Give the backbone structure.
Amino acid sequence: MTSKLPDVSSTVHDLRSRVAEWRRAGEAVALVPTMGALHEGHLSLVRLGRSRARRTVTSIFVNPAQFAPTEDFDKYPRTFEDDLAKLATVGCDLVWAPNAKEMYPEGFATRVVPAGSAEGLETDFRPHFFGGVATVCTKLFMQSGADFACFGEKDFQQLCVIQQVVRDLNLPLEILPGATVREADGLAMSSRNRYLAPEQRARAVVIYDVIQRVAAAARAGPHEAALAEGTKALAAAGFGPIDYLTVRDAETLKSWSRVNGRPGRVLAAAWLGKTRLIDNVEV
Ligand code: PAF
């Protein structure tokens, strides 16, 4: 069955006039922010958006502001035609695909700099990252005027940061978190998984096994031994460096202890060859 390809907007003016038309018809709008290279995880977010809003917009923009000069901006996969075909299968209405000049015109000088849940974890290793994400997401929210925006739990700290930005700046939309979508063996879907060589791909799922074991230990009692064993298991599977493997409060991302009864989250980030994998599960 062939489905209609979504329309594509590449200027803020065009995006706004299309959304305004939907608004006049009383239709709610959900935004799914992405950097393209779409997989089932992204498509599940479009389905989530459609469950709450009559119209969905998927943004595809590889955001230079969230990459350090040493990172993979140039080689980040760009698969636009393939992305459009995938979005057609889930009924996405519109793709918002600005170029870098449209997003960051000459003279652009304002940044959103999140603290709180942005402190530690990813920020210890990618200090520029959440400033870039918060800035582009704030722009995407204002450009689209969406009622909802869908973010995957796979990037758990990013989800917490975006929720905080929306709260702190009183942005008029609701964030909808989407469950992590996994491959058959349990590896969390990620656009960067395609960097893995076949023998690395076979070992990559160890990160998921390890965080599940830490979560089980944390549910039952002290989890320090499970963290130490998990670190060894990751190293034995060829992961390194291991940026973090930790249990945190699921809302503040500060330290977590079973005794105070708050929700916990196990989070890990580790390199497998030249690919950095991150994953998390609830305690
Ligand atoms: O998760 C991503 O793909 C990006 O960080 C996002 C939210 C689209 C912002 O560029």
